[in-house]
């Protein structure tokens, strides 16, 4: 590949330029700035250290991160990452979200219906292969399709030859492509989860704030062939935890950032996308809270939805605050103007790149024009719920599987089908009362957004009110039966066309409009952002080299920083909190929800070391998706687990600044104290600390009766 003023290879440039970087950054494992860490902290991670941490890290495919913490497949993440499984297992009158869960033997470890974990075992630079698919005479849209086809072919070849999950990931808007190879685990079993009241102590009012007092943890175990997986790479548990100014690392899967976006892309988010989301979320929160007030069972099945929307509401409010910050936006504008002047003043660069910023600006105009149909029809904001999601997937999969792999939509490429099938054939419970509520409200919202004359609105409502239509559609579907879904999927296009299932019929009818707006987005927005964004990235690198990591893509990254408090409004905020503070926090709020400690904690108070650290903060660079990331020390030991950031960290989506922004972790010492002295989970605590005596049950004593962390268990 032709490079400007760069005789080194792409990756070598990235490694070399990292010497001049600031401490922030969500770094690729194959381009980690080891020398910079050594210069600032006197510690240089070896390649062996990096490989061990990488192989000990894991991605939860429902949107979070985690790590392996014992040789016998024990896996560690946040409660809010594992909560979907915890709730799915809460059947037959049980409510493990409320009571918690602890399997005292492996026989009691409960299998999650549809959880998939990915371990990154290999990385390959495939930039040349993807770019070779683009020919000079191609239009931007054709070039985008050619690259997507090349990516799908690379992934299929990799999966076929290795048996691994293989994903081609785009970095720097399309200037770099890496093939990520994952070992996939789908037999994932719940070992331990605390009560929701302790995992999310302080509730929505405390979310994205600090100080915090949460035990946001869950433990799983991975199995193969009905046996726990033996692991050579796992993180050991720290006995000493952290102290002020300690160097720490965070290994996780940040979801998405916009630090390298152009001003027109940021303005689209600020003016169109974020306001739309921030209008939608409160509506859905109110809807679900009203539903939850109807009965204890309604409250149970709606709890995770409410948490998710409340979390998104706060997160996007924080992101929007960054884009409304005049200083931040002025800084972004100045950086862009400087790069534009560099290109304009260099005849060679100007001839090669043209004006990619203007091209992206025009693409944002297109995205603005198609935003409502793209959001409500193709991205299903007008068809909210699990059943409508499955109906769309079944209809579209039947069509896509008839096409050559390179011509399919990316989410239906050959290498992605196994994960799709796992979701489609999940045995997780589906609640039609909730599905009816969600669909009815989203249909009403779509009607308001697109108008009564829109063909999709007409087809969806069929002359009825949104609530009436939703009631009939959900009553007329059998997609809550996994055997019906399997029948339709395996029957392919013929089965889908013959189906009279109400939701299949609906999704068939709106498919032409959905595909049309999807094609418009793929050809006139995504392809432009990829082609022109790659030019901007190349121009940026020609001036300074790869001086910052690529934007987050829900792939494994390693960040680093220091355990450190901060000053807020003249007040010094200490770096840690302790167990005693949790009781004080509850008392200050009258011991009422969401500040009501579970009964297990009330009973255990006299047995606890109240000075034990519970949460701490650091300057590690994180964003959504990092939830569950292990926080580790120089020895590669777990000292905590990321579960949140303060509200000041949310603008990190666009610009990192460690003046007051902080990542929040649960302390490893607080976890041990709670496991041993609140929950009586001694075997689990011993397995973490390496003190368990090995036996056929891997150190986990068997009990005759399954136990949950209800107060009566202690």
Mean pLDDT: 93
Distance between the termini: 64 Å
Please state roughly what percent of the residues sit in beta strands, choosing from under 5%, 5-15%, 15-25%, 25-35%, 35-45% or over 45%.
5-15%
Number of strands: 21
Instruction: Report the C-alpha radius of gyration, rounded.
Output: 25 Å
Q: What is the 3D shape?
A: globular
Task: Note down, in words, how this protein is organized.
The chain is of the alpha+beta class. The protein is 47% helix and 15% strand. The chain has 25 helices and 21 strands. Strands 2, 3, 4, 5, 6, 7, 8, 9, 10, 11 and 12 form an 11-stranded antiparallel β-sheet that branches. It has an 8-stranded antiparallel β-sheet with strand order 1-14-13-19-20-21-18-17. A two-stranded antiparallel ribbon has the order 15-16. β2 and β3 (64-68) form a beta hairpin. α10 (263-292) packs antiparallel against α11 and α18 packs antiparallel against α21 (502-544).
